[in-house]
Specification:
The chain is mostly helical and 220 residues long. Helices cover 52% and strands 9% of the residues. It has one domain: Intergrase catalytic core (hpI Integrase, Chain A, Orthogonal Bundle), CATH 1.10.443.10. Helix 2 crosses helix 6. The two termini are 18 Å apart.
């Protein structure tokens, strides 16, 4: 998704309510860290470090850990979230960062709840941003963040480390996807009577959105 699409989804929750504040911050942190959904759900207060260089420790597949720096604005949202949801247990470091309340009892947020949240806000945001796909899922935030970093010039090796990929080849799909995006843009802007049009050879490089989504979704 483009930055405009990501922003449209994140702006949907009503942050003046506790639930809206939680949902918005969850999506902000999901995008900023490029975390897998389980990595997000595993975050505890002890995994967060504020201060001059705010960061969060993520626990991923294969019990691997990675430390991810937080953007300044993300850290500001985090502080607001902590005041709202963890003011009474700030000293309890083993507490889950994200939770919901049923009959006065706190329960850790689940992947099913996260999927429902993203799908709901995705459908709402599609009313103002038509490019948002029908199925908005956590991995889409991860892929979008990685693609945006690549388009901004971050080296694929750094992106691979940042995503926690064990092999650089897994990250190469972002370079291929970006090249395909540029090819489509060039083809769309080239008139058919232009001598270069026959050189585009679009059939050779055509990758459908469905095929690309399957490949990206397969990057775990």
């Amino acid at each position: 998704m483009s930055m405009a699409a990501i922003t449209a989804i994140i702006e949907q929750p009503d942050a003046t309510t506790s639930k809206g504040l939680r949902d918005r911050f969850f999506m902000i942190l999901l995008y900023d860290t490029g975390a897998r959904v389980q990595g997000m759900l595993n975050i505890r207060l002890s995994d967060i470090q504020l201060g001059p260089l705010p960061k969060v420790t993520l626990f991923g597949k294969g019990r691997k850990t990675r430390i991810v720096p937080l953007m300044e604005k993300t850290a500001q949202h985090l502080k607001k979230y902590l005041l709202e949801f963890h003011a009474d247990n700030a000293s309890e470091e083993d507490v889950t960062l994200f939770y919901f309340v049923i009959r006065g009892e706190k329960h850790p947020l689940t992947s099913r709840t996260v999927q429902y949240i993203l799908q709901k806000y995705g459908e709402q945001a599609r009313q103002v941003c038509k490019e948002i796909p029908p199925n908005v899922h956590p991995h889409l935030f991860r892929h979008s963040r990685a693609m945006h970093l690549y388009q901004e010039g971050m080296d694929l090796t750094l992106i691979s480390q940042w995503l926690g990929h064990s092999q650089l080849e897994t990250t190469q799909i972002y370079a291929h996807a970006d090249t395909e995006h540029k090819r489509r843009a060039i083809e769309a802007s080239t008139l058919q009577d232009n001598p270069l049009y026959s050189k585009l050879n679009s059939a050779r490089y055509t990758v459908t959105d469905e095929e690309m989504l399957k490949k990206l979704t397969g990057l775990r």
